[in-house]
Amino acid sequence: MYDPSASDSVGIVTPRNEAFEESLALASGQSIAGFSLRFETYGELNAERSNALLICHALSGDHHAAGYHSESDRKPGWWDSAIGPGKPFDTNRFFIVCPNNLGGCKGSTGPASVNPATGLNYGPDFPIVTVRDWVKSQKMLMERLGIQRWAAVIGGSLGGMQALQWSIDYPDLLDHALVIAAAPRLSAQNIGFNEVARQAILSDPDFHGGRFYERDVVPRRGLMLARMLGHITYLSDDAMRAKFGRELREGRINYSFDVEFQVESYLRYQGVSFVDRFDANTYLLMTKALDYFDPAAEAGGDLAEALRATRCEFFLAAFTSDWRFSPARSREIVKALTEAGRKVTYAEVEASQGHDAFLMPITYYFEVLRAYMERVARGVGV
Amino acid sequence: MTELRADLEIIKNWITPGSRVLDLGCGDGALLAALRDERQVDGYGLEIDSENIIQCVRRGVSVIQCDLDAGLPDFDTQSFDYVIMTQTLQAVNYPDLLLKEMLRVGREGIVTLPNFGYWRHRLQLGLLGRMPKSNTLPADWYDTANIHLCTLDDFERLCDKQNIAILERLVVDHAHQARAGVTFFPNLLGEIAIYRCQRGAAS
């Protein structure tokens, strides 16, 4: 709940838009002519323009990372625990930019936007975008905002992949990359889960090849299933056991296919509520961006070689119960960074919450994040 | 700035400027910070303790949180000039394996150890029949991190067995002074030993 007296909240925030007329050439070979990015900012850009942080969102995230849009909002932005006055990403010291990714569904140009060439929603015609394309578009936003250099680029999960891509693609434009609960590329298992999620959407009769907007329907069942599946991979076995166990909703088995176990009820709720706030085509795009992410590929599969181009310092964190992007995946990045001779800090956080832990204010995680951000702040004199 | 612990001061002076250093069990990162500031060494520390990780982050040294009992699988063979273990070897589960790993990854190893064979330790165990406590071993037997204590002789025998050549040895008292007499009876009079070693010639 919004609390106007909370001194560690950024309070009420208003999203902004920047429109770009120029054409953006994408990794797929396609290009997108004219697009806009929606984003939020927290804190003030200092006179030297040296205190800017870029926060990149994950699969189902958006530009609303902190604060509230209105006094009646029930929930704050997705990383409100970490962003605000006195928090690890301290808005008293830093100017924080968080955009909605291109292809998103929260205000940046995406499949649900109207294609100026046809006057219809892009739908399946929206080009597939990659992590590198996002980074490119974020660089355009950076220039538009008059920021010459990020004090740090920060992200968790798919957001962490963007931070890593930033360090490779624009080595001289950031001092630090914070890559949290990420992986250098997806495993076959990760891609497998994404494919099942995509098939759930693609096979929904209401999907209509992605042109469901024109028919005024939504592939609810498919998107709901995709989210339910995703949600299982965000939690750990332990976290699910602790939260639901085998608890029955009515206290007894009914020998039916209705919701019986609490965990079923929870997953259905997560799925249903997701449908109301997310676009099925965007979900498809985001999972593809994940699948394609592989910065080592251009260096012949040698991640250390790919990271030799970087100049920034790195902070990585992973969580012990995360099986989606396990600590071993972060250690692959750490290994490559040490081979490449880059400065790197790696914290392995004991946490029971699974992949979702990166969003939670776990004491040690936040302490080490805070200590690292102190260093980032010192580096730019704020 | 606080003064560097005396054994770390000694080690610092053994390190060639600009070299590549890995510090196993780097604690609060004091040695790595000193090496960075005075020896142009940007090294990496491995550490398991979260409090220490935070201290390292504050000092701005590169630290990687991991368990040394898993060995050093994330580091390539001969990828560092020096691998350092200060007061670490006696606190791990498999000191013999870690010693091997140290000289697989590093061209040279530097090890500091408390000497369990120091005369005061011997007196406490031999005459009083109690587990020794001293400046170098201040903890009680039940809450010590030192689970694999050894004497200098023991350590040197292990080096011998593993075909490790000791290039340099400094045996000192708890104030890290090399006193007269220590040279002649290091295993009896020395409290702490600092070794520089490398893989022996192939036999």
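The CA atoms of residues 57 and 101 of chain B lie 26 Å apart.
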